[in-house]
Amino acid sequence: LSHIGMRQERIVDIDSNRPFTGQFYDTFNRKHDYLRISLTERCNLRCFYCMPSEGIELSPDGKLLTNDEVFRLAKLFVKSGITKIRLTGGEPTVRKGIMELMGKFNELKQHGLKALAMTTNGIALHRRLPAFVENGLTHLNLSLDTLDPFKFEIITRRRGHDAVLKSLDTALSLPMDSIKLNVVVIRGLNDSEVLEFVKLTQDKPISVRFIEFMPFTGNKWDKKKMVPSSELLERIRMEYPTIQRASDELNDTARSWYIPGFAGSFGFISSMSDHFCGTCNRLRLTADGQIKVCLFDPKEISLRDVMRAGACDEDLLRVIHQAVLGKKAKHAGMEDIDVVTNRPMILIGG
């Protein structure tokens, strides 16, 4: 029990030495300035690593945050030091009123918001993307795990490969600060396509990010299917021996590389084999109003319930602050994460 007492003393000590400014520091002095907001639990794909094969039980509409509630919390977070917001899901583009909500988020740039990002599967995006950019979208992450239309249907249990590629082309024609492709790599399924994805960066100014297969409830994670980033890097190095390390942005989860003469870059999100917890600056807000301070920690606190009980902004801030203080130094190892009961990825927010 001594370690618990020491941790409590540490929290008290930090609380007494740092006046509460609304900025979110944990007990390891990590400042949190990045908020990921899940706008919906619904999705128009059924990717097996995200959604259990038996499906999920959606929250009743009354338990989901309304647009006004989402904006109230977003504004509070931004005024308290959040400089980047990423909209996720489910699939964020299926959220009713997303265009108007994005326009309101754009107004937060006068309060310190610097980046408004979205992670999407791109299925229903290309026609709406110009309007999203007009309403303040600055960064786009497209989920695309394969360049093979047949494999796409195996992974997503739906059609739509062409639509995603069309969304990528549309994004490249628009004034955006960043366009990234998220590729979840699974041994025996799409790991043979890594070099093809790298080749995309020859002519396209995009960043391809290879993501290690992560365990979540219902996704049948198997360590044997997880390809360590170090293995992928060696495969790429054998084909492109001139690859060079790129300078990563502060708090970036990806370790980035580039090939001289190529327009884009590629990187690795090695959550399983080489975690990046030491520089984590992220908080998550689920579609049903729970704050999660770590993707792999099942613990969550309902801001929705606090808000609907009549809490003022200062009360909400203190609840958020206490949640952040409970953040651990790092997540458990991959075997331990595999046995922890957590939400399916689709209910957390990608």
Strand order of the largest sheet: 9-10-11-8-7-6-5-4-3-12-13-14
Helix content: 25-40%
Seen as an oligomer or otherwise, the chain set is single chain
Number of domains: 1
CATH architecture: Alpha-Beta Barrel
Shape assignment = globular
Distance between the termini: 35 Å
CATH class call: Alpha Beta
Structural class by helix and strand composition? alpha/beta
The whole-number mean of residue pLDDT values reads: 89
Number of helices: 12
* CATH-derived topology: TIM Barrel
Strand fraction band?
15-25%
Please provide the count of β strands. Answer: 14
Give the topology string: H per helix, E per strand: HEEEHEHEHEHHEHEHEEEEEEHHHH
How is this structure best described in words?
The structure is a single chain. The chain is of the alpha/beta class and 350 residues long. It has a single domain (26-348), classed as Alpha-Beta Barrel (TIM Barrel). Helix content is 32%, strand content 17%. A twelve-stranded mixed β-sheet has the order 9-10-11-8-7-6-5-4-3-12-13-14. The longest helix has 16 residues, at 2-17.
